[in-house]
Amino acid sequence: MAGARGPGIAEPLLAVLRQKAPLPLHLPSHGRGAALAPELRRLLRQRPGSWDLPELPAFGGPLESEGAVAEAQRRAATALGADACWFGVNGASGLLQAALLGLCPPGSRVLLPRNLHRSLLHACVLGDLEPVLYGLPLDPTTGHWLPPPPEHLRRVLMEALRQGPIAALVLVDPTYQGRGADLAALVALAHGCAAGSGGLPVLVDQAHGDGSALAAGADLVVLSLQKAASGLAQSAVLLAQGLRIDRQALERSLLWLQTSSPSALLLASCATALDEGLSAAGQRRRRRAERRGLELRQRLEALDLPVVRNDDPLRLVLATAPMGINGLEADAWLLKRGVIAELPEPGSLTFCLGLRPPPGLPRRLGHQLLALRGALGGPPLPPFAPPPLPLVASLDLPLGVAWRANAVERPLREATGAIAARPLVPYPPGIPLLIPGERLDGDRSRWLLEQRHQWPGQIADTLWVVAPV
User: Fold this and answer.
1) How far apart are CA 325 and CA 323, in angstroms?
2) Are 352 and 438 part of one and the same domain?
């Protein structure tokens, strides 16, 4: 390889990978290997790299009809109650994009929730789809988007269909913070609405869930096996069922968006994580982890710390706003003390406990959170205000056109009336506050200015907007 020898290229990466955090409460769920599936652990003990294989005929790949991968996918579909299953090696993001492109022909309108992951916006650009954004209830204490109740979604569907045909509905369940919806009722509403003889097909982004959306009737389900199972990062699964799905269209989309050289290790991680989750031993391990998560929650509540009630014992959400603390400032304070949360937000901190929570967690985390309250706590922060948006919103300029347009940077205070040219995504997991093609009215501009104060250092005081012609 040509070039001049300089400082070690890999050293910055390796230095971080060698570090051991005292209290890592972030993804992946295997907790830096502690809860990897036993079969995968055995594989990784072989000679390093011996498992790094190409698509050999006997091994195959996710889109091959023969080989070990194809057989594993067939077994996974049977075990999970799906008609078809595809393993993915570029995360839930890549499979969400392929699923949306496989559902919706170019030019069609797709109904997306405000808490969508930005990968779905990328799919809309790639597939020339028109995103129709629907609002969600907002929790004023934490600022979290909440799952839609059935009556809320019924009004969304009526309004969206009144404005024009819809090709598909996307739901996010559970949310990043572990809040779940009545999925069966929501899916039934979509399937029963007047959008052709079969109703609307439903894609569920269940990256933080367990595949239960299939039993609720969803047509397509995407799982992230590093978030809610024992898989390695980037291992994910797409599940399909029912007559609303065109399997050939899905496989064509997967061909467009998935690598032609998938990692054999990540494909094996998909299969072993599913085996582990379905096995009696794996279910016992999960129940044990969930029991420890509930005990931690009870311990923190006994310390009078404001813990948010949710549906996932392995997602602990601390409401920092009632303590008078911005969640991003709380995160910075805890990071200096070796406590790594998964998701800091202005009103909360979300901790992912994983399938094998660290030892002594109730005592150790409780001590640190009490110290946090003592150091930074104060009067409760004001309630979070929902954005001033319609129930269903279409864009003023097509997404792809706005994103590719000539753009100019304007002070946010002077951007009223302009059309956004870039998404405003202040922090992972990639949920945008504003997407390209949305026009800012005065109320929305004021709301964004308030958001800027709530995301210190994360939202600039300028905005890229489409340049006037």
Assistant:
1) 6
2) no
